[in-house]
Amino acid sequence: MRHLVREAGLERQISVDSAGTAGYHTGEPPDRRARAAGKRRGVEIAGAARQFQRADWQRFDYVLAMDRSNHDDLAALAPNPDALAKLKLLCSFDPASPGGADVPDPYYGGDDGFDHVLDLCFSACKPLLERIRREHGL
Question: Can you give the CATH number for the domain in which 40 is found?
Fold first, then answer.
């Protein structure tokens, strides 16, 4: 999503962040296979892992989960119905994706799993960005 926002010249208007529901890898850079998959597409995958914080409900208009398990974990953390309304599965923004589809965790597979995940993310993030642009007049 950061890549698409940067390409659209909307970095000042749209803030993108990533966080996990658990703190297993806090402070670590992205997996080398994810960075390599991004590099093959001309996409920089950078940053450091962090755990989702309660304040994130206020900081962001959208809270996106990659899969149903993380969606359910985040839903349990929502402080109120307004926060819960921000929570969506990422693939729900891809019109070609079946309802309730997950982005699989590629961690225990091969390099091709990271390429597949990037394909799924681009397929969902492009229409998401268009929705954000429409909703916010960008």
Answer: 3.40.50.2300
